[in-house]
């Protein structure tokens, strides 16, 4: 899984998923969720930028910092 490759480059990170989002499909586009948990002392922005640098994805990514719900 590609998330395994990214996580191996990030210290003190746990990734849960991927899992289908709710609703799973919107306008013929499938959606998936990943929950990325960082250690309290971690700085997620620079860590994610370094891990994703130079990679290409055929997906759109959106980020919700401190989500209130996973529904």
Defining traits:
single chain; 71 residues; alpha+beta; 34% strand; globular
List low-confidence stretches: none
Roughly what percent helix? 10-25%
Question: Helix/strand/pairing class, anyone?
Answer: alpha+beta
Strand order of the largest sheet: 1-2
The helix tally amounts to 2
Helix and strand run: HEEH
The major β-sheet equals: 2 strands, antiparallel
Distance between the amino and carboxyl termini: 23 Å
Averaged pLDDT, please? 76
Estimate the strand proportion: 25-35%
Radius of gyration: 13 Å
State the gist of this model.
By secondary structure, the protein is of the alpha+beta class.
Chain-wise SSE layout:
Blueprint: H1 2-7, E1 13-26, E2 29-38, H2 44-52
Antiparallel strand pairs: 1-2
Question: Would you kindly provide a written description of the structure presented here, covering whatever features stand out?
Answer:
With 71 residues, the protein is α+β, with helices and mostly antiparallel strands. The chain is 21% helix and 34% strand. It has two helices and two strands. Strands 1-2 form a two-stranded antiparallel ribbon. The two termini are 23 Å apart.
